[in-house]
Amino acid sequence: MINNERRTAPGSHICWSYDDLESLADQAERHLAAGLAAGERFWYVTPRPSDLVAERLHALPSFTDAVRRGAAAVVPLVSTYSPDQVVDPAAQVAAYAAATDEALAAGHTGLRVVAEATELVRTPAQLDVFTRYEHRIDRYMRTRPFKAMCAYHRLNLGDRAVTELACMHPQTNVEDLLFRLYAVAPADGHAALAGELDMSNHDLFRTALDRADLRPTDGELVLSAADLRFVDHRALAHLAEYAHRRGATAVLRTPRSAAARLVELLDLPGVRVEVTP
């Protein structure tokens, strides 16, 4: 079930699933307010005619003033992405990195984007590559002042596609999403795992790991699992196989000792559990 009425605090990287434009506009306005309060430049990236989107935003005095100061803009999707093509993850991250640098040079504290991204994930090929991009841009956000809300129309894409996208974000309004795999600051490892990994989402977990394309450091893939409530033996086996293919050991950092006991019981040489305080 997806609750479009549930509000999500404007964080650094949010997957927002919506059924109607009204709920999307409400959430976008919250991001606009948060961004302007933080001194950020704000972009609303949309495939819809810019004047229609700006009409509602211009009813907000803060938006009108921000546009005049160069602190906010409604940006056509085609000028930021190529909707008819499969996105190039590295090039897209570089484009947002350049836009962030421009915002900083103009005196802003960073760049915040609300992007209506449904048109970018219509086909299976687009969806596969865009989820890979989502993890890349998530890594970029861990070290640079860039924030984004990625908005997807559930009725157009379907629950499965939205789930594949949402699980690559640290925040989402998809309430029945069982797990998330997302980036962390370099000092905290290679990625974070949160939620529950069980027999219902093994295939999605394998797909998410593949799309994250984690690269070992000194023979280890470190996963922060402070918010991972449950992991079963098959998920641990998938993790061991994934690490093995990359010539690495998966290091799971978690405060729950049950995972360590399970790894010992299974005798999984590709996984090491570090029980944290």
Give the secondary structure arrangement, pairings included.
Elements: E1 13-18, H1 21-37, E2 41-46, H2 50-57, H3 61-69, E3 72-76, H4 89-105, E4 111-116, H5 124-141, E5 146-153, H6 154-157, H7 159-166, E6 171-172, E7 179-182, E8 191-197, H8 202-212, E9 220-231, H9 233-245, E10 249-254, H10 258-266, E11 271-275
Helix pairs in contact: 4-5, 8-9
Domain STAS: 193-277
Organism: Micromonospora reichwaldensis
Protein name: MEDS domain-containing protein
Write up what this structure looks like.
The structure is a single chain. The chain has helices at 21-37, 50-57, 61-69, 89-105, 124-141, 154-157, 159-166, 202-212, 233-245, 258-266; strands at residues 13-18, 41-46, 72-76, 111-116, 146-153, 171-172, 179-182, 191-197, 220-231, 249-254, 271-275. It is an alpha/beta fold and 277 residues long. The protein folds into 2 domains: 13-177, Rossmann fold; 186-275, 2-Layer Sandwich (Transcription Regulator spoIIAA), CATH 3.30.750. Helix 4 runs parallel beside helix 5 (124-141). The protein starts with 12 loop residues before the first strand and ends with a strand.
The CATH superfamily of the largest domain is identified as P-loop containing nucleotide triphosphate hydrolases
CATH topology of the largest domain: Rossmann fold
| Sheet of most strands | 6 strands, parallel
**How many separate helices?**
10
**Relative strand content:** 15-25%
Highest CATH level, the class of the largest domain: Alpha Beta
Q: In which order are the strands of the major sheet placed?
A: 3-2-4-5-1-6
